[in-house]
Specification:
It is a single chain. It contains 6 helices and no strands. The chain is mostly helical. The protein has one domain. The longest helix has 21 residues.
Length: 170
């Protein structure tokens, strides 16, 4: 079935394509092109990522914390792809790989744990993510968030995209 598009992946509910985006196009267009997300919006995002990393460190993450990390990693990956920042030390790539390991473990019914190196990458990612949110303009962040949602919907609905993908849906 290679090359076939237009089907809905078996794990995706038919209502998925009709779910609203987290941010609207109007919000993207009216967002500041020079100022970052307001502190009151940034703080909960940063705190959620830090809490999730801490839970992974203690070996007690729940699925919602994995989703928080996956969302942050996906948005950072989109911002990198869009050329909004560089990743010369592969920090974000290493963090994405660690989040994938967590997701695969959960998908196979195993505990969501990382080795010391992977945990260090995730901790560094959390610190860099906070800096990224402080430096990226509100419009760029919202644009990347919407682009990430579009990319993930495309992958879930059509199974098309770069690389191999393993979906964990609860």
């Amino acid at each position: 079935m290679n090359g076939v598009t237009g089907f809905i992946n078996k794990v995706v509910d038919r209502s998925y394509p009709n779910l609203p985006y987290h941010y609207s196009l109007a919000q993207e267009l009216t967002a500041s092109a020079s100022k970052p997300l307001h502190q009151r919006k940034r703080n909960p995002l940063v705190q959620a990522v830090n809490d999730a990393v801490q839970a992974v460190g203690y070996g007690t993450p729940v699925v919602e914390q994995w989703r928080t990390l996956a969302d942050a990693a996906n948005i950072a990956e989109t911002m990198l792809t869009l050329g909004l920042f560089d990743d010369p030390d592969a920090l974000f790539s290493d963090a994405v790989a660690a989040v994938v390991v967590l997701g695969r473990a959960h998908g196979h019914g195993e505990p969501m744990r990382l080795n010391a190196a992977q945990l260090m990458h995730l901790t560094e990612f959390a610190e860099a993510y906070e800096q990224l949110l402080a430096l990226a303009s509100e419009r760029n962040y919202i644009h990347a968030h919407r682009a990430t949602e579009r990319r993930l919907r495309e992958l879930l609905l059509n199974g098309t995209g770069e690389g191999d993908h393993e979906f964990i849906v609860n």
